[in-house]
Structures are given as structure tokens and as C-alpha cells.
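Researcher: Go.
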Amino acid sequence: MAALWREFSEATTVHGLRFVNFGQSLKRRLFWGALVLVGTALFASQFIETVGNYFKFKVNTVVYLSNDGNTKFPAITICNQNALRKSKLEANKHDAIVQSLLYMTRKFIDNSTSNKSTPDGHITGQQLRDLYFKYGHSMEHIDEGGMLEFCRTPDGSLCSAKDFVRTLTFAGLCYTLNSMRTAQMKTAYSSLSGNLASIRLILSTQVDEYSEAIGKSSSTGIRLLVHDQLDPPLADTHGMTIGPGVAASIGIRKQKIKSKKYPFESECDDKKLGPGVPYSRLGCLRRCQEKFVVKKCGCNNIVDTILNQTGIKRCDMDQTFMCALPAATETFNNQKIKCSCPFACESTEYIPTLSYSPYPSDIEGRKLAIKHLTKMKKNTTEEAIQEFIKEERRNKIIIDIFYHQLDYLTMMHVPATTGGGLIAEIGGLLGISLGASFLTIIELLDFLFFYLFQKISKEKKSQTSVSSKETTSSPMAAI
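Model: Structure:
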């Protein structure tokens, strides 16, 4: 062993090791021995830390600008702040479903603890859904009793009610333009930034249709949400409120996020939420809410859902107001309800900036008034003009949605330490602490291998020699 160690220490590339064995004095040998031990300890501690950091799977965020040249527009969801039209409710005030809805709504708003059911008994969830679809505000043209007066896409083509996808949400009936689901309009793109390449909407809020009977909204106008086409239209919890009498300019900035899957600390997910439902964090949170409602109430809310499971019935009216709506509110207020909803591995966000000015201006208002009164064959008196301007400011909203700039930020998570980086760090630690390299590790392994090989060989020879002697001295050997 001594000879093998001497030979190794003479030839090894570990700096200083040969001076431990061949130093001219004991002090010098001890000095070099101490340096080698310190270097080894330093390497060992840094090696453990480096390998530990690698297996924590941390990530760094790389941010860079991208430009697709022709950039896709996001989806735009619009909901009137009023859920059901006053004229429809009054025209059908003797309808049993309407009476039950008004009764349960007042009870819910007053936070009544009574468990008394609706006066007309059992109203199914489908009947309640049909009521919202039938009596809610529509996205038909304003001449047909709807909210839409004008719609234009960035390429200048006109859009209409058929290009909006209707969804029943906790905010009432909502309409999504530029959706990927069932609308006929092709996905809108823009190759220009600025207001000239905008989606323009002129809407009527229909303030005369706001009803106090079902809890009149505290504000007048619309709820507008700009979101990725893969995200559900959660206008009840996201978006912005825009009141009538304004021309709103909404400049958007696109932002992409690319994350890493487990075991990296970002732990993103890309599993579908259901058949044909791509993963998004907002969709996952809403699905978690729905699962909680189903578990607690035995039925699902009447709104359009993320869960497309068969066998889950809609809550009837009693269940909706007595269980489902309170449970949906409770979901994210209760810390005991845990929802595992990591970020999507690839997601797109649209950051809006809202600015607005009064609409219409006096000059524009007069032009519109004269044009309208002439079309309707009415006198263009000053009183009629001012009445028209007043009504426009009470009802109308102009919305322009456009890109501030087509360049967008891409934020990408990359491993903080790669396999190659780990090897490089270990090699650097070997070099700075012991003046060694990875070949030095091979030398050590080679030394240990030959040492063990020689030791095993000697033990076998020794056992063979002992066995031979015992055989020779045995009485049976002479026979």
C-alpha cells in the first residue's frame, strides 16, 4: 500500500500532494498536508452546496422583446352592469318564474336567514338560465333592441351580433368578441399599432332598462374584460367598468410567459381542464370553485361552467340562492379550501391602459343630432338637439381597443443551473481549491481500483496458501 501511495502521490495532478510525501523537512510536509486538507474541506463544502442548489431546480427569468409582425388581438368580453331588462320583467311580472326570481333575489340581497322556498315551488336551473337568456341585454343592433350600434375590426371590416359569443356569468349575460369558440368572425390581427388600427365599438348601455326589482347595480355602464382567447370570460372578478357618456381608449400591451414544469420551482401545468378545454390558471381556479359548489350543494351553478361532466345537474332556484351562490362566494374567502392551480406553462396576458374623454363633444353631438333628427323626419330645433345630446351622454359609450406597440415582452423561465453548468462549477471548485480537474478524479478512482484489486488478490493468495498447507498436513493426504 505504501509503495502504491508513493507512486500515486508522485504522479498525481493534485497540487501540493507530492510535497506531503517528499517534503525536505517535517514542518514543510505538515504545512503542505494542512493546505491539502483545507483545500479538500473547501471543495467538499462548496460541492455539497452546488449540488444541493442544482437539485432545488431553481429558475431564472429571461426577458426579451418579440415582434410577430402581424399580432393577434385578444378576446374582448362585454357585460352590461344590469342583468335583466326592466321592460321584460314588467311585461311578465305575473309569470311564476319571474315572481320566484324577484322573491329570491330580494331575500338574497337582504341576507335573509329564512329557509323558506320560492312561492311557486320548484323552479329548475334550466328554467332560470332560460330566463336570463331571454330577458337579459342582447348584443343585437340598437335598432333591434340591443346594445350594439357600431362594430369595426382593425382591418376595417364591420362586425355584428353574430360575431359575439354569448356566455352566462356571475355578472349576467356577457358577450365575447374575437373568441375562438363559435363566433363566425375570423380571429382579428393587427400589423399596425395605435388608434388607427383599433377594434371600435359604439354601445348603448340602455339605462332605462335598469331594474331595481332585482337589485339595481351601484353603477351604470358596462364591464369590459380584455383577455387571452384561452381564458374564460371572468368579467365578474376581472376587467374594468366603463360608464356612459365617454369615449374610452384602451391601449393594450401583450406579454407572454413561458414556465418550466416540475421539478422546477415554477411547477407549471399544461393539462387540459376537460375535453377541448385548454389549461389556464383562471380556468383552473373557476373549476376549483365549481367543484366546491358541487361537493357542498350537490349541483352546479346556473352559469356556464368549466366542468363538462355528465351527471352534474344545474341547481334549481332554491339551491341557487340558498347554497350555490353563497358557496361560490365562500370559495376563495375560506382559507381551508385549497386549490392547486399553478401557472400555465405558456400563457399570454394583455395589460390594458384606459383613458377617456366626454362623449359626444358639443360639435359632434350637434352633427349626430341633426343627422338623426333629419333621418327620423323631425324638426331640428335647438331644444331637440340638446335633448338628443343629453340622451347620448346618458347612454352611449365609444370604445377603441388597440395595441400601444406591436413589440411585446416574452418572459421565459430557464434553469438556474443546467447539467453542463453543474459540471463546470464542480470543475472550477476542483481547480481553485486543489488545483485539480476531472481527470484528477479519474486518477483517484484508478488508484482506489488498483489498491482494492491488489488487496483482494493478496487475500485470495493467502487463503489459497493456507488451504494448501492444511491439505498437505492432513492424514488423509498420505493414503
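Model: Residues 71 and 190 are 5 Å apart (CA to CA).
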